Amino acid sequence: MECRLGCGACCIAPSISSSIPGMPNGKPAGVPCVQLNEQNLCKLFGKAERPAVCHQFKACPDICGKTNEQALTIITELEQMT
Question: Where are the beta strands (DSSP E) in 28-68?
């Protein structure tokens, strides 16, 4: 599955413990990454500064659902379970 441009759920819902440019201590769950722009696109996509955890995430129907809203709900629920 290809990532839905403008979704941003994987940049909002999960906590990220690794350093992100502009967020040296990572980010808490439910907080948009500072690298997410107004169109919900990653400003670091394709750049070396992008954290490995972000680079390793691959969109799939089980995680992303059929809509951006479903993706946010699913990833939020998974975050709460871990």
Answer: none
